[in-house]
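Key idea: predict the complex, not the pieces.
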Amino acid sequence: MCSTCGCNQPADAVTITRIGGGIHNHAPFRALQFHLLGEEHNHNGHSHQPVTIELEQDILQKNNLLAQRNRGYFEAKRILALNLVSSPGSGKTALLERTINDLKQVMPIAVIEGDQQTTHDADRIAQTGAPVVQINTGKGCHLDSDMVHKAVRKLDPPNDSLLMIENVGNLVCPALFDLGEGGRVVIISVTEGDDKPIKYPDMFFSANLCIINKIDLLPYVPFDVEKAKSYALQVNPQLRFFEVSALHGQGMDKWYDWLKTQFAHFRDYQHIH
Amino acid sequence: MHELSIVLGIVDIAATTVQKANAHTVDRIELEIGELAGIETDALLFAWDAAIKNTVLARAIRDIRHVPGKARCLDCGEVFDMHELYDPCPKCNNYLNEIIQGRELKVKALTVS
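Result:
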């Protein structure tokens, strides 16, 4: 049906891989529930008179319930989980690499990487020494709370740590799926259009923080930082911003200060502020 | 295209309901989709046909109720129609608004037999 969304994906299409530590397997864990009833059935005495059931059920309820379960686990272990979302190529992995290298002496950091294919990102993170699990969604376009639940079990992050969940590069689909995170960070880079926030408003609406990356390239691109911020504030007036270059390090100090503050706040109050 | 995940969620809900009701199939399904729910109806319909094959929804009549977006201005209290998440209050041009309707994404009712 379509090349990006996982239609008719086989049952073992999603894989979760622990990188490093000698563990490497691709255990299948989720079967798409396409074939729910057999062709043949017997009536066993029940009738087939039509009955209308008023359900009023949220379609995302299953994801949201499991997300809350993840959230409870994170709160109990005082793990601040951040869901990092962006388009592909905005520099999420580069941001993580530098952040881990600069902060690993200050706080324990573990990572869940989400991509359709390959362990390239998790391999990069493993180089920093941080524990990392790769989720490969196959054709799936976003992480969901069930994938994160299973990845967390495999990762087993320590108490009082920071858990970075790098979502699949996609500015649309991940917006709808709560993973149980304590905060959501949206990343845009200056090589994208400065109108991204109103082109893809759902993602900016649900984020707590916006990182504008690759600011070292500003002299060479027409990206207007103030315009991008103003668009993003139209969608989400409470959004905060940091302008950084994950490659060269400009502006990273403010992001680190924010992380340290939120990390301490979360341990005491189980939410960010 | 997260709409496929949404349809698979609907199939899951329908199958569970059919099983609980000791029924066999869904004749009619009523959905409620808000204007600000982040769902493209066209994409949902596109995913629908592929995802419901060989499920309890295969022959169901689909009735989608679209819920218009509404917000309340947190400054002046004006209640207004919101079509996009970045629509300001028409009275005072404020962007700090509370969405009061239009985020719905629900299976409202199922007729099973």
